[in-house]
UniProtKB/TrEMBL annotation:
It holds the Pfam family G3P_acyltransf. GO terms for molecular function: acyl-phosphate glycerol-3-phosphate acyltransferase activity. The chain crosses the membrane at residues 12-39, 119-138, 158-181. It is a multi-pass membrane protein. The keyword S-adenosyl-L-methionine does not apply. This is Glycerol-3-phosphate acyltransferase. It comes from Pseudosulfitobacter pseudonitzschiae.
Length: 202
């Protein structure tokens, strides 16, 4: 899709909208709404779907996954429809930053995998599909959710090139680096063999 120029003010608006949507802590809100306790005091303390699963409520975890992905989809599609591709890419980056560093939670948010997958689906659905497959394969083989997220991020830039979406390459690299940065502690635990398995309480 060709880039469409947007004014600086328009881009600023979509940056704020993207960040605002991304910063909605669905995992925290759902666990509180369903009376599952303080998510910050459960498992890793993370606000993402993997940690919500540690409450034992699979429905809450699934909803968190869908909503965290969905807010990325909404940010991209709204910006693309109303202001074009450059606005969509900026909204995508800001939605990811909003999820990982939400102002409402003292800039202590999630790891970003679900939002990353949603963004990839909205930016270029074949890439999103490929990333989801990579996540599923890696997570199934290792039973480690973070391995799935890292694998999905790792293949995304290659998929962007292979599918002819080179105009999104810089954004893809930025999102991939952010996923890896947010998972630096997980990477250390994976190397040490102490990373919790999917569904493990701690």
């Amino acid at each position: 899709m060709p880039l469409i120029e947007s004014s600086s003010l328009t881009l600023l608006l979509w940056a704020l909208i993207g960040y605002g949507l991304g910063s909605i802590p669905f995992g925290l809100l759902l666990t509180q709404l369903l009376g599952l306790g303080n998510l910050r005091e459960i498992g890793s303390g993370n606000i993402g779907a993997t940690n919500v699963l540690r409450t034992g409520n699979k429905t809450a975890a699934a909803l968190t996954l869908l909503l965290d992905a969905g807010k990325g989809v909404v940010a991209v599609l709204l910006a693309r429809v109303y202001s074009g591709e450059d606005a969509a890419q900026l909204a995508a980056l800001m939605a990811m930053l909003g999820h990982c560093y939400p102002v409402w939670l003292g800039f202590k948010g999630g790891k970003g995998v679900a939002t990353f997958l949603g963004l990839m689906w909205a930016l270029a659905w074949p890439v999103g599909l490929g990333c989801c497959i990579a996540w599923a394969v890696a997570a199934s083989l290792t039973r480690i959710s973070s391995m799935g997220g890292l694998m999905a991020a790792a293949v995304s830039t290659f998929l962007l090139v292979l599918t002819g979406n080179g105009t999104m390459l810089l954004l893809g690299i930025a999102l991939t680096l952010l996923v890896f940065w947010r998972h630096r502690a997980n990477i250390t635990r994976i190397r040490q063999g102490t990373e919790p398995k999917i569904g493990q309480k701690s």
